[in-house]
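Continuing the series of single-chain predictions for the mutant panel. This is the parent chain; the variants come on the following pages.
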Amino acid sequence: MSNILTEQSNPQSETIDLMKTAELVRTINEEDKKVAFAVEKALPEIAKAVDIITNAFLNGGRLGYFGSGTSGRLGVLDASECLPTFSAPEEMISGIIAGGDYALRHAVEGAEDSAEKALADIADFNPQPVDVVAGISASGNPRYILSVLEEARSRGAKTIGITSNPEAKLKPLCDVCITTAVGAEVITGSSRMKSGTAQKMVLNMLSTASMVKIGKTYGNYMIDLQLSNEKLIDRGNRIIASICKIELAKADEYRIKADNNIKTACVMCKKQCTKQEATQLLAKHNGILRKVIEE
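Parent structure:
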């Protein structure tokens, strides 16, 4: 049996192929319950990572997620959702998967073992000292991720590790290592399960908390949301109405005048100013709506 935690057999599921359906799914659910507790134990490291990422963003830096297989796909997912959710520029958060975009839908044999692919990918990202590179890997041992982190450090970038293995080889290569020790998987070695769920939870925290800290929300409202369909336009109107304490119809008028920009609409309403004046006020306060409103 492997001494790597993510490769060990789970005694709770040794007879999973003999279980009735209800027992089988209950077993998976019982194991899934352990994930949140594992993430909770890593909160101090997650908070440190958020502060590193926030500092990078405030100084014009970028965040790059790197991983292979499930880990890489989850990094790409989190990065891609920051544009519509927070209007974060595409270059602010990037998701890079070993094997390229083809690997999002297909297995690419040997990708996680290739230092050559890693060096090519990190060269394309071209990390600078102001940037942050996060390596995502359940075991924390593949050559791809180790090479990415080694090269990023050599270029002066900050590095973050996200792993489910307390003995991961990536740990000494990271300024902060987030370890979510979820234990053995229900299906031995299937790190798309508990380890993947833990990674998704951690990535949600890293991107969301960092966006909150750079002013992408007002309270818990997504004020930089892109209003790209009817559902989101309705949500935008409700956000404007709630923040400005006005009727929905009036909120819709401000939204239209602000060209679908929630923050601009709120400033126009609160300050009774033009769109140009609202834009100038937001620029003065680095886009942080609360500072404009409370000025």
